[in-house]
Amino acid sequence: MATALEDELGDILAKARDGKFWSQRDLAEAVGLPLEKVKAIESCQSVPDDEVVRKLAGALDLHAPSLVDIARGAWAPNPPVYGDADFDLFRVDAFMGVYPVKCYLVRCKKTGSTAVVDTGASPELVVKKAAGLGWSVSKILLTHSHPDHAGGLQALDRAFDCPAWIDRAEPRPSGSRDLRLVGDGDVVELGRLKIHCLSTPGHTPGGVSYRINNTVLSGDVIFAGSMGRANSSWMDLFRSVAGKLLALPEDAILCPGHGPATTVGEEKRHNPFFCGKV
Length: 278
Hints:
Layout: H1 9-19, H2 24-31, H3 35-42, H4 50-59, H5 64-71, E1 87-96, E2 99-108, E3 114-117, H6 123-133, E4 137-141, H7 147-150, H8 153-160, E5 164-167, E6 179-182, E7 187-190, E8 193-199, E9 208-212, E10 215-219, E11 222-223, E12 226-227, H9 234-245, E13 253-256, E14 262-263, H10 264-270
Parallel strand pairs: 3-4, 4-5, 5-6, 10-13
Antiparallel strand pairs: 1-2, 2-3, 7-8, 8-9, 9-10, 11-12, 13-14
Helix pairs in contact: 2-3, 4-5, 6-8
């Protein structure tokens, strides 16, 4: 079974190793593998047999059966249905160079009010999609300020002439003439929709996820079968996922900035970082 997961085995191992403050040599010694073998696995040039994957999982506090499934390409989340009776959700598959990035258009069904969540690095594509749908954008919501998520802010600001929101703890991106700040528990209204702000730091100092009913637009905090890279704090990132996102109902839909959408239940059962821990 081929998967379209954002992270492969090597990516997951590197992130888990970062959480233990281990070098590749530390991991090699912990599982009795040559250093060059560990380097090959982490660079996704080699996939070891299941016994070695289980040893790696044990050394890194990962859920071994889930990790084996990902290593073998034997699991991917079932595609959830976007939107509900209150809102439409359209995913925009943008690119930063050749690197795929997902941003989203959210529309209140009762009023037609529309927001862009993350700008991607191909803002012209976002503008084209909104025009093609006939949706008039009045808000820009940023999960964090990395260039692949906020690099198109200036172009969208010019195209839509609307305010943008970002967490107050996040470095300020350039490009908005009306940048507004949010914090945990704040609500941004979009027509008759209430968009709840969940502070989810760790990937960046001020990452924020946006919950609309039972759907969460989560940026780079969690990926299907993995978690984001802890550029700010590994422990903060783990807590953001375990304590905020995976505390939501099991059928809550998680829409990340990379890779496929998933649900809280899928991640509780199949994510090597969190299975059996939440």
